[in-house]
Design brief:
two-stranded antiparallel ribbon; single chain; 2 strands
Length: 93
């Protein structure tokens, strides 16, 4: 049986980093049932991974908002939510 590669994602920022990992069964070139099981597990793992990342980013946003409020900085909530976790490339191009 081939070794399994886990489904992984890593979040990194200047102040923190976090890794997310979900085990997957070994990929196989065997019967259709085994391939179907693998793809089903992969789909579920991707959904779980997305949920974990979204929860983590929401937590980070709340922490950032609290720090900004403490510092008296006004935040554009809608813009922050749309762009959270992405590089700010506004003005480039």
């Amino acid at each position: 049986m081939a070794p399994s590669n886990p489904l992984t994602a890593t979040y990194a920022s200047p102040s923190t980093s976090k890794s997310f990992t979900h085990p997957l069964p070994p990929a196989t070139a065997k019967p259709t049932a085994a391939k179907t099981e693998y793809l089903s597990t992969l789909r579920k793992s991707v959904t779980q991974l997305q949920d974990e990342i979204n929860a983590f980013l929401t937590e980070r946003m709340e922490e950032d908002r609290a720090l900004a409020a403490k510092a008296g900085v006004k935040i554009d909530e809608k813009r922050e939510e749309e762009n959270y976790g992405e590089e700010n490339v506004e003005g480039e191009g």
